[in-house]
Amino acid sequence: FLEGKRALVTGSTSGIGLAIARALRAEGAEVVLNGFGDEGEIASLCEELGATHSGANLLDVAEIEAMMAEAGPIDILVNNAGMQHVAPVDEFPLDKWEMIIGLNLTATFHTTRLAVPAMKAKGWGRIINTASAHSKTASPFKSAYNASKHGVDGFTKTIALELAQTGVTANCISPGYVWTPLIEGQIPDTMKARGLSRDEVINDVLLAKQPTKKFVQPHEIGALAVFLCRDEAGNVTGANWSIDGGWTAE
Ligand code: NAD
């Protein structure tokens, strides 16, 4: 049902973004990928999805502007690229703070401001922001990440109101722990910060948060993104959709 629609998914060379890109493609959308990675792997993803790819670094406004200009009018914007760093606030590396706020929050502002005019002109658009359970609740040692994701929630609500009468919706998807390279990458730091073994981090820190005791699967997030693109979801806007195994219900 998405034939003729063009979707840009940031951070879609891996993990959740890739799963969302695949799900939108399966419904017929034309997909623009973004993110870093091995050139050969990206080329085969482009072939698999009939997609184009922008290697824009979303920490650089000029690169975002070039990506948006090259992509042309976007119907479905998925702001998904994100990064994490785990450290106590008084030891938090200053460059990591800037990067996390820059990528997770500020880049979302830039892509959105650049995508909205064409959506408004068409009278249809979907903005889907990958936030996090950490946009609704907190856990220690993730000050920059939690601040950025709470920011994404506030930003999304604001643009939902601004765009309410334009046919453009804006929503957050807020996963709990999803098994992706981002999660794997934070296990060693969490081991260090909390003095735990790998198994203890997985079972006592990560899955301890999720009443289902299961990692969310990336394709489940793709399915939710597809739902938000349906015309039946036209009145779903300014919402922050949890997909977290019950984490934020506690
Ligand atoms: P991932 O590390 O697998 O993928 C991140 C993607 O972002 C990659 O494609 C990477 O190349 C891209 N990227 C990184 N820095 C970039 C930059 N400067 N410019 C452009 N692209 C850049 O991560 P993931 O787990 O799939 O996470 C995707 C989103 O989901 C993030 O916003 C993350 O905060 C959020 N999230 C993840 C989880 C989880 O458990 N994995 C939970 C909640 C929210």
UniProtKB/TrEMBL annotation:
Keywords from the named record: Oxidoreductase
Acetylation is among the record's keywords: no
UniProt-listed SUPFAM superfamilies: NAD(P)-binding Rossmann-fold domains
Lineage: superkingdom: Bacteria
EC number from the UniProt entry: 1.1.1.30
Top-level EC class: oxidoreductase
InterPro entries to which the protein is assigned, alphabetical: 3-OHbutyrate_DH, NAD(P)-bd_dom_sf, Sc_DH/Rdtase_CS, SDR, SDR_fam
GO molecular function: 3-hydroxybutyrate dehydrogenase activity
Family of the protein in this entry: Belongs to the short-chain dehydrogenases/reductases (SDR) family.
NCBIfam families: PHB_DH, PRK12429.1
Name of this protein: 3-hydroxybutyrate dehydrogenase
